[in-house]
Amino acid sequence: MNKPKINIQDLNLYYGKQHILKNINTIIPERQITVIMGPSGCGKTTLMKSLNRLTDLTPDCSVSGKIMIDGQNILNTTEDITKIRKKMGLLAQRPYPLPMSIYNNVAYGLRISGRKKRRFLDKRVEHYLRQVNLWNEVKDRLKEPAGTLSIGQQQRLCLARGLAVDPEIILADEPTSALDPISSQTIEEKFKELKNQFTIVMVTHILRQAKRIADYVIFMYLGEIIEQGPAKDFFENPQEEITKDYLKGLFY
Amino acid sequence: MDLRKIEEIFFRILMFCSTVIIAVSLIIIIFSTFYKGLPHLTWEMISKTPKGGFYFGKEGGILNAIVGSLYLSFGATILAILFGLPLALFLNVHIAHRRKLVNVVRFVMDLLWGVPSIVYGAFGFTIMVFFGIRASLLAGIITVTLFIIPIMVRGIDEVLQSVPRGLHESSLSLGSTRAETAYKVFLKQSVPGVVTAILLSFGRAIGDAASILFTTGYTDHIPTSLSQPTATLPLAIFFQLSSPIPQVRDRAYAAAAVLFIIILIISILSRFFSKRYQKNKINF
Ligand SMILES: Nc1ncnc2c1ncn2[C@@H]1O[C@H](COP(=O)(O)OP(=O)(O)OP(=O)(O)O)[C@@H](O)[C@H]1O
Ligand SMILES: [Mg+2]
């Protein structure tokens, strides 16, 4: 296992009185793919969102514990939250392109970081669109609204947009759930490539997908981590009864 | 015939009837205004200020009221945008997570929306007396601004509320500040609706008589500064309509037609310009 990038200690999260995340303790290794699995409603999305403090947006949300990223507790920090968020690219369950052109979607992150030179932006936009295999499909329509792309293309655009802010971590919440098999495969292949550069955390419901790409697995159930470990051990030799049932497909 | 079919037919008829009633009454209002007003809508009406015998049906026009109304409503709408748009964005982006506070603000705005405009007029008048300002364009602009801010804020607010949470999160996750999220994402996604809300406020601003009754005064001249009183179209209609002389009353309808045409032109123009931005809106 690589050295830890994210270290979560005693994380508890409440929405109002509802206890959503219970005593989460885990380590997410650098430059590997960590897959979070578990039945619907167990708190996977919530865990992901607390990593870049998007849970701040939810009314009545209270969080305790520590989330250490590169040795800094992001839950209790004096540092600008936007800087912390820039370290992480988020790929949501379905694509949410920004209401602007394809080009501007990718350039957005660069622009808000103060990189405004046209020549520089042109180069970077092309670079990131190539990186997600979208360039050839959109190179003649960069000025068109991002909403005109297909869902699969939008999801790749969102990935490019996220990569363009030069993150260290990629958070992907069921990134392929709205996609056809071919687009899913593109994203999956991309992730395998990207893990040389990035720390990737991914939620998936698809067991086979998890087996294909996970280096490390976290299994959650009703807000708790039941079992975690290297993918090989997890899939071939699960310890807990619940995990075994889940892997057998006894519940979803 | 089973019950569900009857139900469907019933609601269809209901929908059809209400649509027809609304459309017909609108057409009657427009038609009767133009029918009575257009014959008297001469070039002199819209190009001249009132001359000596104007209020007895002689020469002159309502240019003073047209210009006064445009000054007043543009001034108030711009001021209201300056305060209202940031407030609506603030509610939906900066303090979106403080639901109670947001709901209190919404509730207050709804209350203010319900307050009749004559009350704003009286309020503006009290303030004027307090500060020793006389009836003027400025006093009118301030009063009308106060009167349309709740309309504008709640109008824009409703549009912003339909921006999906996922888009909000996407923007933040790219490292945008809240201000960037508000102006570069929320606003862009909501341009057509925001324009509608602004138009609605503009329509109220240019059409309201009660709030400016005490605050703008009335003169026959085109105002040359903010501290001068000014005529306005709603009051021009009001004064002329209460005249015993038939020619003057006819001109009231001409003035109403002018008001109508102004609103029409502004609506068409702003739709035309918001089209450019509309294309970027994502249909989630
Ligand atoms: N904004 C919210 N307010 C209140 N409760 C919420 C909110 N978002 C999620 N929850 C609750 O938190 C729990 C965990 O939700 P979460 O979205 O993290 O589940 P999940 O594991 O991602 O499920 P799925 O696989 O269906 O996406 C659920 O019980 C859900 O009802
Ligand atoms: Mg989820």
How would you describe this structure to a colleague?
The complex is a heterodimer of chains A (252) and B (284). With 252 residues, chain A is an alpha/beta fold. Chain A has two domains: 1-87 and 168-252, P-loop containing nucleotide triphosphate hydrolases (Rossmann fold); 95-166, no CATH class. Chain A has helices at residues 44-51, 81-86, 102-112, 118-131, 135-138, 151-164, 181-194, 207-213, 231-236, 241-248, and strands spanning 4-15, 18-29, 33-37, 61-69, 72-73, 88-91, 169-173, 199-203, 216-221, 224-230. In chain A, helix 3 packs across helix 4, helix 3 packs parallel to helix 6 (151-164) and helix 4 (118-131) crosses helix 6. The model of chain A has no long low-confidence stretch (mean pLDDT 92). In chain B, helix 3 (63-94) runs antiparallel to helix 9 and helix 4 packs across helix 6. The mean pLDDT of chain B is 93. Chain B is mainly alpha-helical and 284 residues long. Chain A binds chain B through residues 49, 52, 54, 56-61, 82-83, 85-86, 88-90, 92-94, 96-101, 108-109, 112-113, 145-147, 158, 161-162, 165, 171, and chain B through 96-99, 164-177, 180, 184-185, 188-189, 279-284. The site of adenosine-5'-triphosphate (ATP) has 11 residues of chain A, from helix 1. Adenosine-5'-triphosphate binds next to helix 1 of chain A.
Q: In a nutshell, what does this entry contain?
A:
Chain A has ten helices and ten strands. Chain A has 252 residues and is an alpha/beta fold.
Largest interface: A-B, 37 and 29 residues
Strand order of the largest sheet of chain A: 6-7-8-3-9-10
Quote the average pLDDT of chain A: 92
CATH class category label of the largest domain in chain A: Alpha Beta
Number of strands of chain A: 10
What is the general shape of chain B?
globular
Structurally, the number of domains of chain B stands at: 2
Distinct ligands, ions and cofactors found in the model: adenosine-5'-triphosphate, magnesium ion
Provide a count of the helices of chain B.
11
Helix content of chain B: over 70%
Number of helices of chain A: 10
Mean pLDDT of chain B: 93
**CATH homologous superfamily descriptor of the largest domain in chain A:** P-loop containing nucleotide triphosphate hydrolases
Gap from first CA to last CA of chain B = 39 Å
**Helix-strand pattern of chain A:** EEEHEEHEHHHHEHEHEEHH
**CATH architectural group of the largest domain in chain B:** Orthogonal Bundle
**What is the fold named in CATH at topology level of the largest domain in chain B?**
MetI-like fold
